[in-house]
Amino acid sequence: QLKKEDGTLVQEAKNAADGTISFTGIEVQGEGSHTFVISEVQPKESYTTDDTGKRVQNGITYDNASFKAVVTTEWGEVPVEEGSEETKPGLVVTDISYKNMSDEDVEAAIFKNRYEAEGIGSISGTKTLTGRSLKADEFTFQVVKKTTGADGQVTETVVGEAANNADGEFTVAVNKSATADGYAPFTQADIDQTYTDYVLKEKAGSETGMTYDTKEYPLTITVSDAGNGKLTVDVVLTDGGTATFENSYEADGTGSISGTKTLTGRSLKADEFTFQVVKKTTGADGQVTETVVGE
Questions:
Q1: Which residue has the higher pLDDT, 254 or 260?
Q2: Which of 28, 83, 231, 282 is disulfide-compatible with 34, CB 3.0–4.6 A?
């Protein structure tokens, strides 16, 4: 916006696509120097401030600088109307110079804004288990970023993980990278980028009798700008379909039963009697079959 030195608003203008700002049709009285103040219109509500006191709204940090525009005019001949070769007496602008608010000369009134945005994505899947009932939070699923080094070695970095619920469903947050104390989201530097070096996998456990699913699902991640300081991070399975991890559980074991043998008429000797556990099975014909399952 353009103001007089006393704070009176003269005109507001918007920037062009190339960043230039033009104020037109400004009236001045008499020849000489006329000083105006140019500043950027600041958000008046729903904003925050950064550590330098600048206002931030929808991801944009506004420049709070102001500049003086010194317009020098003198009497001369001006066109009767725009584009006309016919002239009339009038004020002619002979110079426009710029100063900062400390009256130091500057090349132009340059306002520097900064846009910052961030966001994370997510991917969902299902866990199935055969052999026993599935429990909530007993399996962990990870999104892993794979990086191939100059030596051809692949480094895996976990950028998100989550556990299943009682129904076997899970949703993993997809961050861009890992940090010393957590994860880092995608930022404005990732806008319009597509990434294919991430996979969804199950974290191998150590439960005896459990066979863990080793499948890996490649992911395609597309980042776009929502325009308000937030990013849209779209995450899909590269090969389509849904992510399903299938585990199986197998277990066996034996039991025992104890008892006591007594003998009357003489002394009992070790190992002279044998005792059995027998499984009785009744067939379709009513006949009972006995099977020794321990002795």
A1: 260
A2: 28
Between 13 and 27, the higher pLDDT residue: 13
Query: How many CB atoms are closer than 10 A to CB 93?
Result: 14
The C-alpha atoms of residue 65 and residue 194 are separated, in whole angstroms, by 37
**Separation of first and last alpha carbons in the chain:** 99
- Is the CB of residue 234 less than 8 Å from the CB of residue 225? no
SS3 breakdown of the chain: % helix, strand, coil, rounded to 5?
0, 50, 50
Q: Among residues 80, 58, 7, which one has the least CA distance to residue 231? A: 58
Give SS3 for 114: strand
Please, which contacts does 6-15 make with residues 24 or more away whose CB atoms are closer than 8 Å?
Answer: 10/36, 12/41
Reduce the secondary structure of 121-172 to three states and give it as a string.
EEEEEEEEEECCCCCCCCCEEEEEEEEECCCCCEEEEEEEEEECCCCCEEEE
pLDDT value, residue 227? 87
Structure tokens at 211: 């066979």
- Answer whether 202's CB lies under 8 Å from 140's CB: yes
Q: What is the pLDDT of residue 128?
A: 97
Residue 294, φ and ψ in degrees, nearest 5: 175, 145
pLDDT for position 155:
94
Secondary structure (3-state) at 233: strand
C-alpha distances in Å from residue 275, one per residue of 264, 291, 292: 18, 13, 10
**Joined tokens for residue 10:** 């003269």
What value does the mean pLDDT of the chain take? 95
C-alpha–C-alpha distance, residues 270 and 68, integer Å: 113
Q: What is the pLDDT of residues 108-160, one digit of tens each?
A: 999 999 999 999 999 999 999 999 999 999 999 999 999 999 999 999 999 99
